[in-house]
Amino acid sequence: MLRKILTQTSSRRLLSSSVPPLFSKPSISPFSSASSSPEPPSSESITVEQPGTTISVDRSALYNLPDHYHESTPDSELVKHLKSVIKFRGGPISVAEYMEEVLTNPKAGFYMNRDVFGAQGDFITSPEVSQMFGEMIGVWTVCLWEQMGRPERVNLVELGPGRGTLMADLLRGTSKFRNFTESLHIHLVECSPALQKLQHQNLKCTDESSSEKKAISSLAGTPVHWHATLEEVPSGVPTIIIAHEFYDALPVHQFQKTSRGWCEKMVDVGEDSKFRFVLSPQPTPAALYLMKRCTWATPEEREKLEHVEISPKSMDLTQEMAKRIGSDGGGALIIDYGMNAIISDSLQAIRKHKFVNILDDPGSADLSAYVDFPSIKHSAEEASENVSVHGPMTQSQFLGSLGINFRVDALLQNCNDEQAESLRAGYWQLVGDGEAPFWEGPDEQTPIGMGTRYLATAIVNKNQDIPAPFQ
Ligand code: SAH
User: What is its main location (predicted)?
Assistant: First the structure.
């Protein structure tokens, strides 16, 4: 079946013209965490004067984490907002709250107002590296639709579609499977109005109605709808969900082991009016509640932990996905960088393809964290008895087993030298990582591949077979 789908997969988008040696997101953050032992508690107690009010903030019990100082810049709207939240809250906010504001604050969040991808942006993702990525996701989607019994109506949901490139390549690549494309209702879950516009353009949409977020994509004649959350997507219809580099943008809490128990890393404003990390004096409610995630770890794993990063939003999202798939049929594909283990401390900030300080000029850099794949598996299995979880496997294994090497060979038959070079570089960036599983190794100019740092996992309805290529 896979072979048949591959040979029929069509492509109208021209081969990506070049694959610049850009930064792909995952790597080790240069700002190692608060692993240095916290300083003794600062004894200050500061008073903040506001017109008509006096707010006293007792910071005497907070621990300074001194390794995150940064250069001062004039306060942006988002910085002012964050500072006022901290001031009126009467103390620091969690790293999760900081991350959520920085990325998705409706006025000034990183994603909200501009195109952040590609050479002119801040980072590059697999769909932007090569059209083959979206095409291979298309192959996966058609295989799943076959396993679902070729339903006449399917909700194809993409979480965080960025520029819409993956979906556009998926629709072009699968356009010969008319029964499949005719079954589709596309639902894009996107918080950013600027990116919604780009998705609309790249899917070549024409508006069906001015009042609703609904259009028709001329790429396959499919209806396209936009939503702010997965909950808004209508249920009761077989559903296929794709989440590529979505989970890494979901807020994480960070905890640190101390003699007082698991305390939470928080973001505060120091006396110098700069953001700084502090450690809660005792376990926060979030620490007490969320550390239950560690019960999924082995005793040996737990013993070694000094820092833990936990994303309750990722767990809630997975539960919502699993409930839908369990009751409506279908499946979800999650691809992201992360680990098949508890994550200790991975939050990082990237601006213009370079790592920067997490607290520096918030809103101007992407924040992302490694995805905790075991927590996805456990959350899905807890939420629904009717789903099974497969993987994770590396992106390299995933794309290789789906037949990306056949695809690249087919594309190489019909291109000029420049396009061939770009194709090979793109191929290598998607599957490579210091070793070439399906292709001859790259030259020194080729950027580090995404092949092993990105993992793929699938959640499917138990009534269906094991999805390709997880068998
Ligand atoms: N999948 C795309 C983009 C990844 S970046 C690609 O691989 O190229 C993350 C995407 O998720 C962006 O489109 C961003 O605007 C969106 N996003 C981030 N947090 C979100 C949230 N809480 N709700 C909805 N969309 C979100």
Answer: mitochondrion
